[in-house]
Amino acid sequence: MDIYLHFSDQATEAIAFYETVFKTEPAQIMTFGQMPHDEEHPVDENIKNLVMNSNLKINDTNVMISDSPEGMAPPIVVGNNVALVFNAKTADEASNIFQQLATNGTVLLPLEKTFWADLYGMVKDQYGVNWHINLY
């Protein structure tokens, strides 16, 4: 299963943030300006640099990210119906990632020991994306 995140003109910024947090390889990114030329559907100059599609590999999960320009996609409504789960390999990794995601975000549940995990916490990052951080 892959994950798809839609943003309102913040995809490039969000991709760079997640690359840094998770120390990933650079995402594969295609902008609207890189789409094949179509006389019947020209690309508006205002969206040429926005992300049409990208693929960021976090651990073994594909996280696809794009901008959703007004008029080309349904309006973005940031909600709590989607969460990404990151399974850390060490306590240091879990703590570091949790703290980075919490910077300018909101801690929903502190990172702490639970009956099902050595560490577990929930955080909403600065882009409104909910994350569950686990260490089993």
Tell me what you see in this structure.
About 20% of the residues lie in helices and about 35% in strands. The protein has helices spanning about 10-20, 90-100; strands spanning about 5, 30, 50-60, 60-65, 85, 105-110, 120-125, 130-135. The strands form two sheets. A four-stranded mixed beta sheet has the order 1-4-3-2, covered by helices on one side. It has a four-stranded mixed beta sheet with strand order 5-8-7-6, with helices on one face.
Q: What is the topology, as strand order, of the major beta sheet?
A: 1-4-3-2
Class by alpha and beta content = alpha/beta
Low-confidence segments, given as residue ranges, are none
Q: Spell out the helices and strands N to C.
A: EHEEEEHEEE
Gap from first CA to last CA:
21 Å
State the helicity in percent bands. Answer: 10-25%
Q: How many helix segments?
A: 2
The shape, in one word, is: elongated
Number of strands: 8
Strand content: 35-45%
Oligomer: single chain
What does the average pLDDT come to? 92
> How would a crystallographer describe the biggest sheet?
4 strands, mixed
Radius of gyration, taken over Cα atoms and rounded to an integer in Å: 17 Å
Structure in a nutshell:
The chain is of the alpha/beta class. The protein has two helices and eight strands. Helix content is 18%, strand content 35%.
